[in-house]
Design goal:
single chain, SH3 type barrels, elongated
Length: about 170
């Protein structure tokens, strides 16, 4: 699967969660950011962010060591920044560019039904995980299955109109 830069996950209707605020940095309102985009700096391509139910413009941002830090408008001190810790960073779905024909946003695959090539249901996509070799669908049904997202080998078809993914996968595995 060629993935687009915003892996994200669905939050409220029309929003995609791209990360979260995980700490504070300094005394001037900067926050530490955990990003679910690939590469992680791509979270800074999107502004405004929805944080704590409010739209917040990113006024400054940068990589700091192995992590990321950002400054948000109206967040000018350590106490205000501390109040944002644990909040999700979301954007409006329409802020994402449309993916290419052979790409999907992970968030678009979440919730789709997964069935074998002959129509046996396996469950629904809970989320995806990234391994070094390929992305993996986490399918939850009667049990959890990990299905590599490898076109033509395991993934036969993704049909958004039907809301399903057809896979070449043994239901007993």
């Amino acid at each position: 699967m060629a993935e687009s830069d915003a892996q994200g996950r669905e939050s409220a209707v029309g929003e995609v969660v791209l990360g979260r605020i995980v700490g504070i940095y300094g005394v001037c309102g900067w926050v530490k950011v955990f990003s679910e985009t690939a590469p992680i700096e791509n979270i800074f391509r999107y502004s405004p962010w929805r944080v704590g139910g409010a739209e917040r413009l990113v006024t400054e941002s940068r990589r700091h060591g192995k992590g990321l830090i950002a400054r948000l408008r109206d967040c000018d001190d350590r106490d205000t920044a501390r109040g944002l810790i644990g909040q999700s960073i979301a954007i409006r779905r329409d802020q994402l560019p449309p993916p290419s024909a052979d790409e999907f946003y992970w968030v678009d695959l979440q919730g789709l039904a997964v069935e074998t090539g002959d129509g046996r249901p396996l469950g629904r996509v809970s989320h995806l995980i990234e391994t070094g070799a390929n992305d993996v669908l986490v399918v939850r049904g009667d049990r959890e299955r990990l299905v590599p997202f490898v076109w033509e080998r395991f993934v036969l078809d993704v049909d958004f109109d039907e809301g399903r993914i057809r896979v070449d996968w043994d239901p007993d595995f």
